[in-house]
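ok so I'm stuck.
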Amino acid sequence: MCSTTTTPRRSPRLAKTAPTSNVAQIHAAAKGTYGPTGRRPLVSEDCGYLRTFLVMVYSHLCVGMLCINVIFDLVVYGLPAYLFLYPFHKGLFRRYMTALTNYTTPIVFNLPMILSGTKLHCDSMDYYENKVKAANSLMLANHGSRIDWMIGMYVGYIEKPVRVRVGFVCERVIKYMPFIGWYRNFICEDVFVDRSFKIDKINISENLNSFHDTDVERMLYLSPEGVVVDFGERDMQYMQACRDFCTEYGMEPFDYVLTPRYKGQTILVEHVAKGGTITSICTAFVRDGKLLNCEMWSPDRVIADIYTLCAGLGGSPVHIYINLEEMYFDKDSDIKTIMMKDYQRKDALLKKWHGMLKEGRLEEFESMFPPFVPHFWNAQIIQILHGVQLYLLLNYFDCVSGFMNFFGGFVLFIGVSHTCGWLMNGQSMESVPFETGIKAVLMKLFTTFAKHKEDKKRMKAKAEAEAAKKAD
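replied:
not stuck anymore, here's the structure
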C-alpha cells in the first residue's frame, strides 16, 4: 500500500513515460490542454453550445429522476421495513431488501446507461455466469471511473442464470451523500471504510459476519486502489508516491493504475471463506475508439461519471469492456505480493488495449468482448411502474401540481450544484448525485485550511528567526 508523499522522489521510469516528473508542470500541462481555466468540457471538445446545453438539461433531468425514484423506494418500501423488520429479524429483512433492490436496480442504470447508449462487454461470460454467480463472490476492480458501482449493479442484475445482490466497499463519506448514499447505507448495508485499517477491519468483519449469520449471499464489489486521482497537486503527489512504491518493490511503475491497498483483503477474504470466488476485474472505458482511462498522467484521461454516461445521448456513448481473471488466496496468503502482481497484469493489459485502439484495431479489440444482453424492456417497464406508483401516491394526496413545481426547482438546484462544482474544480465528479458540488466545496475548504495552516507555520518560523537574530 502506498501513502501520499509531500516531496515525491523521482522514479527511474517516469522521465520515459510521463512528460515530466515535476508535479506542478504536469498539472499545468493538463490544464493547458483545456485552455487557461483548465476545465474539462461538459460534454466533449467538439460539442457546440446548443448541444452542450441540451445534453446537460437531459443529464440534470436524469439525475433528478434517479433521486426522486430512489427517495420513493427508500421512504415507501424501505423505511417501514427498516423500522419494523430489521430490529426483530435481520435475515428476513435482508431477503426482503434483496427482492426490493432487484426490483429497483433498473431505475439506477436505465437513464444514464441504457437510454444513453452505454453498452457493457465481457471476455469471460461463462465464468461469470457459472462460477461468480453461484455463491458469494469478491470482485476486485481497477478504479478507472466514478461509476464502478453502477457497473456492478448492471452486471449483478443480469438474469442469466440468476440475479444476485450486489454490495460495495466504499469510502465512508458516500453513506452521507443525499438519497443514493442513504439508500446504500440503510437498504443495501454496504461496507463503508475510513482508510484506517485499525478501524476498518472491525467494521468489515462485523458486516461480513452479520451477513454470514443470516445466510444472505451477495457479490461484494470494490476497488483496492481506494481513490481516483485527478490533476490536482495532491493527486499528482499521490500518483508519484505510487510510482515510487512500485520502484521500491522491484516493479516498473504502473502507468494506468495506482498501487492497490492490500490489508483490507486480509479481512474481506472472509466473505468467501465458506465458498465462493475471488475475481480480478480489469475495466476499460472507450468512447469514439479512444481509451478514456488511459495513462494516469495523460491530459487526455477522462474519469467517467454519471454525466459522462448521460452525455452519450447527444454525443458518443461510452462502451465498457470487462476482463475477468479468477484469483486464489486466503487470509494467510502473501496478499501484498498477489495484489501487486495482479495490478502489474492489469497495467500491462490496459497498455495492450490502448495500443490496439491507437493503431485503429477497434474491431479486433471488440471481438474479444461479447456484449452483455441489455435489460432494455425490463428497465423501461420498471421505470414506467415507478412513474405510475409515484403519480397514484401524489394524486391520492392531491399534490401532483405541487410536486411538479418542486421537481422543476429540484432539477434546477441539481444543475446549479453541478455547474458550480464544475467551475470550482474544473471537472464533473458525479459518482452519486450532488458529489461534484459537495466535493468541490470540501476540497476548497481543505485547500484554504491547509494554506492558512502553512502560512501560520511560515510566519511562526519567521518570527522565531527574527527573535533569534535579535538575541544574537
